[in-house]
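RECORD TYPE: inverse folding
INPUT: structure tokens
STRUCTURE:
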């Protein structure tokens, strides 16, 4: 009786095509990563979240120490996991960098003036300076992270983080190592998110340039008031964040939401999700709308 299943030759042909399980490769993931590699000027891999991308980088590099500033609280959570697993030591980038040795990691967020120290590997979180604004590889970065959830995705509807490897480090096997380890770490992004990412990168340059214009002096912001004194402005309302907590809900065009980098303008009272942040801080993400100046 003839078998309805694939023959050995059929299985070998499918393996040759490269797409068997989507946690390894899939057409949309492969296409998305190919486009990103061209844009970022280095081979790129996608991950399901920022946590998993930093975890993957630390698994690959396995440093004894990592120097970092405050930055994204999620990075510190991942570092705490590695402290428990490997004894990773966290250093303050400003005060303890002299303890770094060859093979350790410096993790920075731009905009900043990054540099390698004492042979340490430089990992740059480029979320706030997406292409075409900056290329950290020109300044010596070994690995660059981009939040696909933010500017690359641009619509606040997908989870994704990108790791791009300096081409020189790729020659040393870094990209191959990340690709292999992603399979076993199980942190590949889904097919739907990959398709949405392909959709998004088509408009990346147009969106970023428009957002930069809206946020710059030639767009929405004409001048900045350094200080305003008036009897109606009570300092105690500002000190404990009472006023700033309520301000986002009073705006018409800005939505009070936690994302950034999308086509819609958002504002967020940061202490809502990160208790370590100053209660007087509001984060504003400028979108591509032309009506922002009309918001009361």
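DESIGNED SEQUENCE:
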């Amino acid at each position: 009786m003839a078998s309805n299943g694939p023959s050995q030759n059929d299985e070998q042909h499918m393996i040759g095509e490269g797409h068997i399980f989507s946690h390894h490769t899939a057409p949309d993931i492969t296409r998305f990563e190919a486009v990103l590699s061209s844009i970022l000027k280095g081979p790129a891999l996608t991950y399901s979240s920022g946590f998993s991308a930093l975890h993957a980088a630390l698994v690959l590099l396995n440093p004894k120490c990592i120097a970092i500033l405050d930055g994204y609280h999620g990075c510190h959570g991942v570092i705490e996991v590695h402290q428990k697993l490997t004894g990773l030591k966290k250093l303050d980038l400003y005060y303890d960098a002299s303890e770094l040795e060859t093979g350790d990691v410096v993790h920075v967020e731009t905009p900043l003036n990054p540099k390698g120290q004492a042979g340490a590997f430089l990992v740059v979180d480029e979320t706030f300076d997406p292409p075409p604004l900056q290329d950290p590889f020109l300044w010596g970065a070994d690995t660059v992270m981009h939040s696909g959830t933010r500017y690359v995705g641009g619509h606040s509807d997908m989870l994704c983080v990108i790791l791009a490897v300096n081409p020189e480090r790729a020659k040393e096997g870094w990209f191959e190592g990340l690709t292999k380890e992603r399979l076993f770490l199980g942190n590949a992004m889904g097919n739907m998110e990959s398709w949405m990412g392909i959709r998004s990168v088509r408009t990346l340059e147009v969106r970023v340039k428009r957002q930069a214009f809206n946020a710059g002096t030639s767009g929405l912001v004409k001048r900045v008031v350094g200080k305003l004194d008036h009897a109606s402005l009570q300092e105690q309302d500002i000190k404990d964040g009472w006023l700033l907590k309520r301000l986002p809900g009073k705006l018409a065009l800005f939505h009070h939401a936690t994302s950034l980098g999308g086509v819609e303008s958002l504002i967020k009272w940061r202490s809502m999700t990160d208790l370590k942040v100053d209660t007087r801080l509001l984060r504003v993400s400028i979108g591509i709308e032309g009506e922002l100046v009309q918001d009361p």
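NOTES: Residues 205-294 form a domain with the Aspartate Aminotransferase, domain 1 fold (CATH 3.90.1150.10).
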